[in-house]
From TrEMBL:
Coiled coil: none
Any GO BP: pantothenate biosynthetic process
Catalysed reaction, written as an equation: (R)-pantoate + NADP(+) = 2-dehydropantoate + NADPH + H(+)
Known role: Catalyzes the NADPH-dependent reduction of ketopantoate into pantoic acid.
Every Ketopantoate reductase N-terminal domain range: 3-149
Protein name in the entry: 2-dehydropantoate 2-reductase
């Protein structure tokens, strides 16, 4: 199977590192320094304190990529429109682009460009941290679940490739509960770690942080219930804290964005809860405050005082 991973950040690179052992994989990303490092010296991945290296192809220019049956979309939400254009160029006529992105709304953006028949939803709980150009860390080996639509045999084929590479994976006919379950976990972890400047595990071990996690997660659960969503989480607060503990050393994607002064995905994570809450008449003051704080962090990045 030929696979393109569109977005070679932390998550895309960790997935590419593993799949390269069982498939023909091409990483596509606009970060030239990262791409050059991978092509020059391979992709390095830190797994359980052991550094490993694989050789695979990476490029900033999708025009030279051979057609692929599957494209995995792992960019940040702000790059989804770009990823859709890349996917349109590299997919075979019967190919599918699976979004593994955070938040809500990415599949809809992809569908506008590609058509619903070429867009699949996937949910992953893999943890990954970008350590530098050509260098990533696997921070949590959580499962990835692919939606059975729009092409069942491709969903099973890519799930098989994940499992063959050592990454747990499955196929589901109903991802709505999983999508919202991941959203709620991200609601509880991403913005708080970005604001507090702490790895995920600190949220599970600090009483004040645990209290904040509870408040924002409970708001998100109330919104999901009002929307008629049957969640995949039995105890959302406890399971969010468990994910934080299981990925204790990981820097959340939003923390990584804030540390380098890049735009975050706050609008598609906590912002999605605020918008849905407004539509459904469910108050979300804690999530609204987190959205404002992260927006302020982004806007004041050039003025930040260094320790």
């Amino acid at each position: 199977m030929n696979i393109a991973i569109i977005g070679a950040g932390a998550l895309g690179s960790v997935i590419g590192f593993h799949l390269a052992a069982v498939s023909n994989v091409t990483l596509i990303d606009p970060w030239a320094e990262h791409v050059h490092a991978i092509n020059d010296g391979g992709l390095r991945c830190l797994i359980d304190h052991e550094e490993r290296i694989v050789t695979l192809s990476a490029t900033t220019d999708p025009s030279g990529v051979k057609p692929v049956e599957v494209a995995l979309i792992t960019v940040k939400a702000a790059q989804t429109a770009w990823a859709a254009e890349v996917a349109a160029h590299v997919l075979t006529p019967d190919g599918v682009a699976y979004t593994l992105q955070n938040g809500l709304g990415n599949a809809e953006i992809l569908s506008v460009r590609l058509g619903k028949q070429h867009v699949g939803q996937a949910v992953t709980t893999l943890g990954a941290t970008l350590l530098g150009p050509g260098y990533v860390r696997l921070a949590g080996r959580g499962p990835t679940t692919f939606g059975a639509t729009p092409v069942l045999h491709l969903a099973y084929a890519i799930a098989d490739k994940f499992r063959a590479s050592g990454l747990p994976a499955a196929v589901s006919t109903d991802l709505i509960g999983l999508v919202w379950g991941k959203l709620i976990v991200n609601v509880g972890i991403n913005a708080l770690t970005a604001i507090l400047r702490v790895p995920n595990g600190a949220l599970a071990t600090t009483p004040a942080a645990r209290s904040l996690v509870r408040k924002v997660v409970e708001e998100a659960v109330a919104v999901a219930q009002a929307a008629g969503v049957t969640l995949s989480l039995t105890d959302p607060v406890a399971e969010t804290l468990a994910v934080a503990q299981a990925t204790a050393v990981n820097y959340s994607s939003m923390l990584q964005d804030v540390l380098r002064g890049a735009p975050t995905e706050i609008d598609t994570i906590n912002g999605a809860i605020v918008r849905e809450g407004g539509r459904l008449g469910v108050p979300t003051p804690c999530n609204a405050m987190l959205c404002e704080l992260v927006a302020a962090l982004e806007e004041t990045a050039p003025l930040r005082v260094q320790a």
